[in-house]
């Protein structure tokens, strides 16, 4: 449970600190709790819009009636996010809906066929089609950064995030000052920023990146981006390195995974750091690009039989880099103004 949620037996309320939040006050989701097929709840149409944005409902002209189609969408969502599959708006599901997440649609992708694997690719399985080892450049937008972050800290964070991926695949990433020609273009944007996927203010959607070989990598400038939680005490602080690592996965061609521990899982709670690639992430990206010859699965530090952190003790963190393929679509706006 993240710090923004307080769940009581018969109500689900999002609590946010007024000093941290500019546009999101608090949303009362209690009216939806345990709603199931046949329910008619005011505001349900906005929840349906949320499911539409992330790929679970095909059309967008919604009523407040909990119909069969919405039940199917909910079941699919619960399955995709590894929640208990109840077909109802239970507390686990509402908590997931409230949780901050990536803007990339959960459905713009193929799911791996192997029952034991949970990574996914975008339609057409796009990748950076260059001779191996692939060399990609990245640059920060000269005009779209956030002033409270130290530029050298940001550069260090992205260097580490790219290195995690280049440690496992034969792709190397090099920062360049030439933004116009860079393969991967990184910037912080507010609201509608021209790509059809507007950001939504504090929390909700945190960022999005496009599939290969697009290279656009966008972060929501409205977030309280954190370099270090020891010095950043905001209740809604979002770890920049965690989101950067996730979005690089999209740049390379990975879509969302259903393994909660995986970097490619779509949501990330505030004040949470999740930067170590798991087996699911590694297997997915290696199926696109092959393995970095210096990488050994044996170097994965065991956590359990299915989810293991990747040790980044690769000898060549800068030599090999990754291919990032980014993905497309993103969606967003968790600004469900349901608390009217
Ligand atoms: Zn994502
Ligand atoms: Zn964008």
UniProtKB/TrEMBL annotation:
Cofactor(s), names only, from the UniProt record: Ca(2+); Zn(2+)
Signal peptide: 1-18
GO MF entries: metalloendopeptidase activity; zinc ion binding
Domain of life: Eukaryota
Residues that bind Ca(2+) 3: 200-201, 220, 223
Family indicated by similarity: Belongs to the peptidase M10A family. Matrix metalloproteinases (MMPs) subfamily.
Name used for this protein in its record: Peptidase metallopeptidase domain-containing protein
Organism, scientific name: Malus baccata (Siberian crab apple)
């Amino acid at each position: 449970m993240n710090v923004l949620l307080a769940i009581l037996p018969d109500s689900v309320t999002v609590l946010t600190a007024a000093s941290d939040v500019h546009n999101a006050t608090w949303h009362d989701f209690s009216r939806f709790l345990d709603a199931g097929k046949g329910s008619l709840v005011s505001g349900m149409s906005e929840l349906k819009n949320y499911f539409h944005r992330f790929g679970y409902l095909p059309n967008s002209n919604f009523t407040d009636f909990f119909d069969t189609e919405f039940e199917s969408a909910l079941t699919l969502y619960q399955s995709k996010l590894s929640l208990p599959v109840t077909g109802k708006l239970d507390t686990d599901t509402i908590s997931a809906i409230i949780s901050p997440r990536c803007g990339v649609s959960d459905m713009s992708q193929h799911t791996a066929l192997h029952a034991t694997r949970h990574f996914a690719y975008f339609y057409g399985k796009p990748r950076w089609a260059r001779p191996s080892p692939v060399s990609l450049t990245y640059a920060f937008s000269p005009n779209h950064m956030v002033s409270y972050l130290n530029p050298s800290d940001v550069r260090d964070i992205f260097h580490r995030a790219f290195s995690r991926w280049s440690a496992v695949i034969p792709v190397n990433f090099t920062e360049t000052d030439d933004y116009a020609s860079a393969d991967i273009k990184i910037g912080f944007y507010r609201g509608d920023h021209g790509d059809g996927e507007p950001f939504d203010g504090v929390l909700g959607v945190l960022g999005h990146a496009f599939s290969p070989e697009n290279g656009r990598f966008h972060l929501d400038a409205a977030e309280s981006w954190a370099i270090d939680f020891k010095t950043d005490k905001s209740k809604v602080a979002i770890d920049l390195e965690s989101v950067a690592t996730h979005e690089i996965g999209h740049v390379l061609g990975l879509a969302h995974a259903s393994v909660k521990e995986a970097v490619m899982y779509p949501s990330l709670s505030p004040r949470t750091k999740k930067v170590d690639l798991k087996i699911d992430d590694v297997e997915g990206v290696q199926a696109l690009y092959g393995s970095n010859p210096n990488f050994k699965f044996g170097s994965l530090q065991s956590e359990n039989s299915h989810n293991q952190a990747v040790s980044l003790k690769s000898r060549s963190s800068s030599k090999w880099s990754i291919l990032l393929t980014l993905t497309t679509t993103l969606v967003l706006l968790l600004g469900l103004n349901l608390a009217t």
